[in-house]
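Look over this one:
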Amino acid sequence: MTDDIDLGGKLFTPIGKDFHEFSGVFDGQGLYRFRLKVTDVADAGLFGTAKDATIRNVVVRGNVTGTDNAAGILAKAKTTACTIENCGNEAVVNVIKSGGGYAGGILGYAITSTTVTNCYNSSAVTSKGNTSYSRASGIVGYLSGNGSAKITTCYNTGKVTSDGYAAGAGGYGGPSLTVSDCYNTGSISNTNKSKAGIYHQQQ
């Protein structure tokens, strides 16, 4: 991609969904700004679901609201390793789910081995609905315990709010999660469980 894209407030359908995941390489070439509006979909973001994918060099602006998982770049990474690099989120991200949803500036939920590097979030990220299972983070909302996961050289300056866990880089991660060279200057708030400047790690 070589041009900015503004949908003028029209609803955007995320790229990829369950059983029709995005796979391959998407390169915004550092010149790509995507202003989008996503509402009332399970996996909300520029990309809904992906597997065996690399997404790089793209910045998202606008508003993203999901009913399960949400993020500016990728709502859910599934089954086969994914990489997100050199991406930024400047969109407001929200998840509202009674059973607890996952919200991240860059990635909402990772089921598989995932690497997120050289990324940033500068906007508000919120997960509401369940005081035990809601998770929100400026970079990755939730990284499950399946496979290894890495967050490197990322930062958050946006406000992060959750009814459950909240953190600057990793809302909640399995024991194989590693976080390095990341920082947070955004405010972190929650109503239950705990909050962390960088990440929570499951023992």
Notes: DSSP finds no helices and 23 strands in the chain.
